[in-house]
Amino acid sequence: MKITPMTQSLVLHFGEMGSRWGLNRTLGQMYALIVLTEAPLNADQISEALQISRSNVSMGLKELKSWNLIKLQHIPGDRKEYFSAPSDIWEIARTLVLERRKRELDPTLSTLRDALMEQATSEADQYAQMRVKQMHDLLEMVTLWTTELQGMSSDKLAALLKLGEGISKLLDVKDKLLLR
């Protein structure tokens, strides 16, 4: 499978970015290729396009499936498995947020809760627990916020993000009104 120079450039870039986002380079490249290709791809096509081994592709596909980022498809008359990404970019974003939350925030919240349940035996422990409580409360708010975002339609998410700085300005007006 031959890919265009533009797709090649983006695949290489997302490979680099993937390594910064906690994925390996190959996984980032594979996902970029799947997202940027209209038709579903099979493992052989991915291997050929990215010039990586078939076994590496198989491992990467398993990882992308575990993240719920790709869908398995079958094409009538073809025994191969094909893979595609959701067509809605907002669905991809929601999935990434949810999966990162499960892998990163939830275990951290659990550890913070455990630390808050311990009896502080010194002033240093009391201070540490106060800081842990602040971290816990912040992560709890982020978790609740991401849960709210998961239920929003793509149109509502887009509208929310377009508000951007407007939300901050609205909160400033609210604060001024409350000071009166």
| Approximate helicity band | over 70%
Number of helices: 8
SSE topology string: HHEHHEEHHHH
What is the CATH topology of the largest domain?
Answer: Arc Repressor Mutant, subunit A
User: What is the class of the largest domain in the CATH system?
Assistant: Mainly Alpha
What class would the helix/strand composition place it in?
mainly alpha
Number of domains: 2
- Specify Rg, calculated over alpha carbons: 22 Å
Write down the overall geometry.
extended
| Assembly classification | single chain
Named at the architecture level, the CATH assignment of the largest domain is Orthogonal Bundle
Mean pLDDT: 93
Distance between the ends: 67 Å
Lateral arrangement of strands in the main beta sheet: 1-3-2
Contiguous low-pLDDT stretches (5 residues minimum) are none
Features:
180 residues, mainly alpha, Arc Repressor Mutant, subunit A, extended, transcription, WH_DNA-bd_sf, transcription regulation
